[in-house]
Design brief:
By secondary structure, the protein is mainly alpha-helical. 62% of the residues lie in helices and 4% in strands. It has a two-stranded antiparallel sheet.
Length: 282
């Protein structure tokens, strides 16, 4: 019995040890197995994930490259940097577009000429010196406001030009001498404005015959004088005739030399066609 019990204990111990060994061994053995399983499973999962993700990443990169690729635009008449920036949805607007094309545009972003090739999406070129940076800042006002100022300035120059040119055209008022020559010339100028015919020679000839050039001459002996309407002035005009043919703008005094000449010539034009056709009493 003791031997049997010892056997049993030994077996039991052996079994326990075996279990422990198995357990321990199992743990030792299981770990590599489990580890191998997990290691093999993990890479499989990673490869699958990479295969699943890789196409998306590549596609995204391709799309990114495609979107980022600079586009070319040829400026046409009437376009502005603001308009082009809106058309291409440029991030940063016209300022960003100008920064990337300043070399082609020049120092003034408000002046872009048809035919200029713009690169949409180009990176801004670093300014060569401090002056270039200041020039870019100075050009910062909006294109619309600068264009408005330019149009206003051009309108002012256009409006001012005719005034400057018109100044020399203004002529000084004509002056006439206070003598027979001056009276005849002034009368001819007024007659020309009124469309009354007559020449210097025709007026002068009739004056010399009628009054000898005396503006205060009066005839108190002829039939007109008998009727109470004596002939007066350089061309001996009676008052009723003077009043009927008086030229507006001249004196109402029949002795006034210019008023007398113009009224007499107006009467002669109505009755004889012109003072030039009068060679005697009229």
């Amino acid at each position: 019995m003791p031997a049997q019990g010892k056997h049993r204990r030994t077996k039991s111990v052996s079994l326990s040890r075996g279990i422990a060994a198995v357990t321990t061994g199992g743990a030792v053995l299981a770990l590599p197995v489990l580890g191998a399983t997990n290691a093999s499973a993990a890479p499989a999962h990673s490869v699958a994930a990479e295969k699943a993700v890789a196409p998306v990443s590549v596609t995204a990169q391709v799309n990114s490259v495609t979107k980022a690729a600079p586009a070319k635009h040829s400026v046409v008449a009437g376009e502005t940097l603001s308009k082009i920036a809106r058309e291409y949805s440029v991030s940063g607007g016209w300022k960003k577009l100008y920064e990337g094309n300043r070399k082609a545009i020049g120092e003034n972003p408000n002046l872009i000429h048809p035919g200029i090739k713009l690169t949409i999406g180009a990176k801004a070129a670093a300014p060569s010196d401090a002056k270039a940076g200041k020039a870019a800042k100075a050009a910062a006002p909006s294109a619309g406001r600068a264009a408005t100022a330019e149009r206003a300035d051009r309108s002012e120059r256009t409006a001012a030009a005719p005034v400057a040119q018109a100044a020399p055209i203004a002529a000084a008022p004509a002056t006439y001498s206070n003598d027979l020559d001056g009276w005849i010339k002034e009368s001819l100028a007024i007659m020309a404005e009124r469309g009354i015919p007559g020449s210097y020679e025709g007026i002068h000839r009739n004056i010399i015959r009628e009054s000898s050039g005396n503006p205060n001459a009066i005839n108190n002996w002829d039939s007109n004088a008998v009727k109470g309407t004596p002939s007066k002035g350089l061309l001996q005009v009676i008052d009723p005739t003077f009043q009927a043919y008086h030229v507006p703008g001249t004196s109402t005094d029949s002795y006034d030399p210019v008023a007398n000449i113009t009224a007499a010539c107006n009467y002669a034009a109505d009755r004889y066609g012109s003072i030039d056709n009068v060679f005697g009493a009229y």
